[in-house]
Every structure is written in structure tokens, then in C-alpha cells.
Hints:
Number of helices: 7
Shape: globular
Number of domains: 2
Radius of gyration: 22 Å
CATH architecture of the largest domain: 3-Layer(aba) Sandwich
Structural class: alpha+beta
Helix content: 10-25%
CATH class of the largest domain: Alpha Beta
Largest sheet: 6 strands, parallel
Amino acid sequence: xxxxxxxxRALIALFVMSLVTGIFFTNxxxxxxxxxxxxxxxxGEDPFLAIAWHIHNTSQKVFxxxxxxxxxxxxxxxxxxxxxxxxxxxxxxxxDGVENTHEDLQVNHLKTAVSKDxxxxxxxxxxxxxIASDDNHGTAVAxxxxxxxxxxxGTKGVAPKSSIASANFLSSTVTQTEAxxxxxxxxxxxxFNMSWGSTQNSLIAAVPSFHAKMRAGVLNLRSxxxxxxIKSAGNDYHVxxxxxxxxxxxxxxxxxxxxxxxxxxxxxxxxASGYAASYSSMGSNLWISSFGxxxxxxxxxxxTTDRMGCSKGFSNSSVGGSLAFERGGLxxxxxxxxxxxNGTSAAAPVLSGAIALILEANPQLTWRDVKYILAKTAVPIxxxxxxxxxxxxxxxxxxxxxxxxxxxxxxxxxxxxxxYGFGRIDVDAAVALAKDYTFxxxxxxxTNWADERSGLSLAIPDNSxxxxxxxxxIGTDLKIESVQLKVWITHTNVxxxxxxxxxxxxxxxxxxxxxxxxxxxxNYQGEVFLSxxxxxxxxxxxxxxKVVDGKGTHTGTLTRWSLSFTGSN
Length: 569
């Protein structure tokens, strides 16, 4: 198997869904683990900052067997040295609660009644602290964003002067409802961090009211400049095949319906060597890659805050294994910090903190400006446009078929990869561009599925690289910001199918890879998938949808497809 980083490995997905009112979400990295080979912790005003490799990677091991690669980090030290720390930027952490009294978080926790505790009838209160014994995730997320600077304890968040509030939406004490879900996208905040999602081996219908709330947020919040919605892409690169508890398949971030709107910034996770983390979900809906770490045993995980005390949290006296830090050793006497947190759950708050720095550098930026700056300054990882990637589970595909492409470069000059989006975030470069920002977007336009091909009956050849192709002529000339595909296919096992769009400029984007995790699911019935690969190209001209069946036995027919564009004239 050819693999860009050579180290992706199986991960039991930690997303769980149970639809009482159509909704139930859990976080992306809810349990810790043990590691070995501890090393000496750093000294200084923030004693654990020295092992926070995502801030400054000097090949620290952080108790793992192998070190990271020096220089593979956020590249933010010049930004900090210039005095930019996220001051004045407000961030809502939608999670399972944040320990607002934590020694490294309390100074940055908003004291006004803005946090949301959904376990009580009137949920606008001064804090939404963890309630259940397993509500540990949000405190770890918060530390990556806003752990305080130079206070003599702990570590340092990416935006250590930003202000945070908590919504304990994921707490096991909360019965999730549609109203609560919608509320995750509202409020007087600049950035919304959502380190959660649904499992990527099924297709769950979108909640239109939640998507409408995000749309309203990007159009109206921040005095019309638009809120920034940061969302984890998911940990389902390897996930149980649909209906199985023993066999793994390849997931796709596009299988989570909340990941398919143009209003979110989807982040993948990188490890300390700078490659796609072994668990990080792939997808054409990705925008950027942030840092999420690995498992802490063979490669470093993340350094962040944990619930205080050795009787709760990821770090506590009952943790087994050889990692003394997690049991209150090696300077972590109060078990107030953890070095075992990982996932796209971690990549999202790291990105949220980075965007807080960008917004402080230029508060006039719109949500579209922020997305542009991230894409423009992202660093491609192992950049090559030659070759293709093979199926990670070793499944055969038809001769001549393409399971996944290497990097593509579109006609507007943007490089894109389904594992990385536009590439690794570079904070200093993004902040520099933000300070001198001159790019001007036109009015935001959404075509709202105005373009459709219907009444089709195109048989999809079984187990054939040829597949079938259909062409749609688009008359509207937009400078593209996103492309959504809605598709109807009758097929007894859609997991076999790949869906690829080709733009009028010839850019090819695989939205769904063949032989994926939707095992034995019949039919696409108007599901929506997103691609960012065509960013800033023109929408006008002939668009081609290609459907390839990557396995024998099951057959089907393409009956209808539609495109929706966002962009500007």
C-alpha cells in the first residue's frame, strides 16, 4: 500500500449516534491512553509549554517512543512576539463542559451569562462546567485554545488572551434535541468550536434548522462580517464497516451531513511529523490541516489542560500503564494536565486559536476572508501531483480505476488534497496576509440547486473503471467558493461507488471514494456532498459527474444529480 505518511493505522471510531430526535453526537477523542519513555519536562513560566510540540516543534518525544520532526508546528512565534495573543476574540466551545475554575483557564473564561448548561431548564448561566464523571473532553479542548500565558502553571493556548465560553451539549447529562443543536451555532461569539460529529459509516439526514442557523451566522454575526464555524472532520479514516463490529472500512468526512455545508471550516489532523494523523478522516470537504497528534505511545499526542485533581479527568491516579505524568508524576502533581489528548477534536481548537490570532491582527476580516487567507497561506504536505493512492484496507479496484488522487492544482492556482485540504496551517504567514489584506470578494451568491439533470436512466457498469459520465452545462459565471453535489442513484450497495466531479477547467475532485464504509447501504436519495477543490475557479461551462462501480455483484443506475455553488460574480 502506498501511503503518504506510511503510519495511518486502524482506529475504533469514537463517534456514536443514537437518534432520539434525529440527533446524538459525541466528541472525537473522548478517552485517553497510556504511553511510555517519559522525558524531563520543561522549566519556565508555563512549565509544560516546552513539550507543546504544536507550538514549537524541537523534536520533543513528549513521553512517546519516537520524536516529532523539528519545525513541524504552527509557525506562530513571530505572531506572539508581535504581541498578538487573541485578545478581544470570543469563542464558544460546544462540547461537554469546560472547567471554568481551572488554574490555567479561569482568567480567560467569560464571566457574563453566556455559557449554556443544557441540563437545566434555563441554560444561560455564568458557566457550563463538566457535570458527569466522563465530561473531560471540553476542558482539554479549551486548553488548546486559551490556556493562560505566563501564569507559572501548565501550558499555553494558541490564543492565550482569547475569551472562552462553554456549551455542554455533549455531556452525558444532556438529552440532545434539535433546539439544543441549533443553539450551538448562535450567540455573540466570533468563533464557534465544534469538536464533534456523527459516525462516518452511515448517512444520517441533515437537520435543516441547524444548517440554516449557521448560514444566518455567517451572514449576520460579528456585525455582518460573519461568525467562523470550526468543525472536526472526524476520526474515521478507518471505521467499522456499516453493520459490522469487527471489519474495518474507509470512512469519509462527507458522510457526516453537518460537514457538507459551505459555512464551516473543516479541519483534518496532523501528527508531530507533519503528516495526516492515522485516524484523520479524508474528504473533499476539508479546508485546512491543523495539529491533533497521535496516540502518545509511538508518536506524541497533545499537551493540554485536564480536569483538576487526580480523581477525575484523563489524567488521574487510577490510569494504568507506564506514563507517570498521567498519574500525577513528572511535575503534574495535581493531575491538572494531560499529554494523551488527540484527534480532530484537538485539531479544531488549535485551529480556532490560530483564527483568533488572525482576527486580532485584522478584526475587519469577514468569514470569507478568513477562509481565503487560510487557503492562500496553507503549506502543501509532500506535494506531488503524480501517482495515485491505493485503498488502505487492501481492497482491489478495477484495473485503470483511481481510488484517490495525489495533490491537484486547480485553474485558479490553489493546491488541494483530500487528506489535507489546502494544506498545513501557517499562522505567521496567515497573520502577515491578514495585516496587509487587500483581496476583495463580491457579493455572496448561492445558486441553491438551480442546476439539475433529472429523468436519467444511466446504467453503471459493474466493476469497471469506465463507469458512466454525464455532463451538465452551467450558465452562471461565479468565482467559486464551494460546490455541493446532490445525487440520486439506485444501487443495492452504494459503498462500491465513487463519485467524481470535473470542472469546466478540467480540475477533477473525487467526492466519494469507491469501496467505502457504507457497506450494503442501498441507494443515494438526494444526499449532499461538498468539494472545496474548485476554489476560485469559474462555475460557467460543462461539469461532468463520473460514477464508477469498484466491485462486482451489485449494479445500479444514475437517475438524477444537481449542483449548488457559492461564490461571487
